[in-house]
Write a structure and sequence with these properties.
alpha+beta; 6-stranded antiparallel β-sheet; rod-shaped; 3 domains
């Protein structure tokens, strides 16, 4: 051992095996390249005697830490993106589920409302039928011996009021209201107001109730033109020698005098 070996300043710094290997590899590769180039030259060329030493390549600790940090950051960002997509999918599925539930609830409410309205209509119809039945019973019990003024103040008054409310409406064959009528549909609708169900056509209406003489007419009696059972027109006597009817397309619903168009007969239903 040299007598100066123990002196620290005379020692050469040690290099890691990886750095030495890397430097040797690079240098060897460069020298090999130079040697090949030299051998490829002219045969009489002078040999290369200059030695070129390449700088050593090294990967420092700082660069390695930066690379590791960049890789970790990339992985973290990928994980965040994946988590965001998962959350978006969950939110979309929840929104679709909530929308479906809301639609089902709306349909349920609509169905319940429709059922309630149908029940209300059925109840109203039942009450109307009961009311008409009670009025028919009252009319039957009152008999047919009431005076004209007494009838006019009761159910007959309702009939006449309904008829006068239709004055000016159009006459249309086969129409049944509310703004257009033919003769028999108007008479039928008027008596329906007091619970009396008359036949639809004039021929049958001329046979309804009790036949009465034209000299003994009372307000509310049904007048007909033509034979009983074969009548072609009907109207209602309103007193003072007048009647109300859906006359024809040119006149519509009007009040007329019996003297101008005398009836063939009459029947009494109230």
């Amino acid at each position: 051992m040299s007598h100066t070996a123990h002196i620290r300043s005379h020692r050469k710094p040690r290099q890691s095996a990886s750095k030495l290997a890397l430097r040797a590899g690079v240098a060897g590769g460069v020298l090999s390249t130079i040697a090949v180039a030299a051998s490829a030259g002219p045969a009489n060329a002078e040999p290369v005697t200059e030695t070129i030493e390449m700088p050593a390549l090294s990967l420092g600790t700082t660069d390695l830490a930066s690379a590791v940090a960049l890789s970790a950051e990339t992985n973290q960002q990928a994980a965040l993106d994946l988590d965001l997509r998962v959350q978006e999918n969950v939110a979309a599925q929840k929104a679709a589920k909530d929308a479906k539930k809301a639609q089902q609830e709306a349909e349920r409410k609509a169905e319940a409302k429709e059922k309630a309205e149908a029940a209300a209509r059925a109840d109203a119809a039942a009450q109307d039928r009961a009311s008409r039945s009670d009025e028919r019973t009252t009319l039957s019990a009152s008999g047919s011996g009431q005076s004209s003024s007494s009838n006019a103040s009761g159910s007959v008054g309702t009939v006449i009021a309904f008829l006068k409310a239709q004055l000016g409406d159009a006459y249309v064959m086969g129409a049944t209201g509310p703004n257009a009528w033919d003769c028999s549909s108007l008479v039928q609708a008027a008596y329906r107001q007091v619970g009396v169900d008359l036949p639809r056509v004039s021929q049958d209406q001329s046979l309804a109730g009790t036949p009465v003489s034209l000299d003994n007419l009372q307000v509310g009696d049904i007048l007909y033109w033509g034979g009983a059972g074969s009548a072609y027109h009907t109207g209602v006597y309103i007193g003072d020698g007048q009647y109300l009817d859906a006359a024809n397309p040119s006149k519509g619903v009007v009040i007329q005098d019996l003297s101008g168009y005398p009836a063939s007969g009459a029947v009494r239903v109230l």
